[in-house]
C-alpha cells in the first residue's frame, strides 16, 4: 500500500494557480526528492500535505485514510512530521533542552534521558548538548531541528531544503542521516535544490514546474531528460 497519495490536488492563492492537479504517490520505505524551479509550488505542496493549507479540490490520503479535512495536529498524530526551511529551534535553550521539549510528550524520567542521549549521538551533537542552540553552526541547527522533527518517530518525514546553506561535507552528512532514518523504516520526502544530495539519497525524483508534476523517475532519468534541463537543471543547477 502507498503511504501517501495526492490525488488531483489544486490550490489557488487569489488568481494564482499554485498547485495544479498534482498526483503524487509515495511508497512506504522510499526516499523521494521533489525538485523544481523557485516558485514551482514545492513548499505549498508540503503545507497541503501537512494540513497548514487546505486544497481547493483534490484529496490527500495517508496510510490509506483520506486526511484531506484533518487539521495539522491530527495528521502529526497519525505519523507525519516536517522540518521547514527556517530553523525553528529554541535559540536561548541548550541543545539538550530543545530535544527534551520535543520528546517529553512521549517519554518521562530515565527513559526520556536515554532517548535524548540516543538522539544526540544520532545527530552528531553529543559534545554540543550543553551549548545554547543559538550558538550552533548553521548546519548543527539544521540537524537539531531534524532531531526535533524525528523525535516522535514519524512514519513520513517531510524535509524542506534540509541542506540549504550547508557545506558539501555537511550536505553529505545530512544525506547519511536521512539514509539511516530510511534504513530504520522512515519514508522521506525532501525538497532539495542540491543535486549532490538528491543523487546521494533519492530513490525517485519528482520535478514540479508551474504547480504541476513535470517529470518523474530515477535521478539518472531526470538528469538525462532534456525537458527538465530546459526548465531547471540546465540553468542554475547543471
Ligand atoms: N500564502 C501565500 N499567499 C499567496 N501566494 C503564495 C503563498 N504561498 C506561496 N505563494 C506563491 O505560490 C507560488 C509557489 O510558492 P512556493 O513557495 O510553494 O514555491 P517553491 O517551489 O517552494 O519555491 P522555492 O524553491 O523558492 O522555495 C509562488 O509564486 C509564491 O509567491
Automatic annotation (TrEMBL):
Superkingdom of this protein's organism: Bacteria
TM helices/strands, residue ranges: none
Residue span(s) of domain ABC transporter: 4-235
UniProtKB keywords: ATP-binding, Nucleotide-binding, Transport
Task of the protein: Involved in beta-(1-->2)glucan export. Transmembrane domains (TMD) form a pore in the inner membrane and the ATP-binding domain (NBD) is responsible for energy generation.
One Gene Ontology CC term in the entry: plasma membrane
Organism: Bradyrhizobium rifense
CDD domains: ABC_Mj1267_LivG_branched
MF-aspect GO terms: ATP binding; ATP hydrolysis activity
Species classification: Bacteria, Pseudomonadati, Pseudomonadota, Alphaproteobacteria, Hyphomicrobiales
InterPro entries referenced in this protein's UniProt entry, alphabetically: AAA+_ATPase, ABC_AA/LPS_Transport, ABC_transporter-like_ATP-bd, P-loop_NTPase
Descriptive protein name: ABC transporter ATP-binding protein
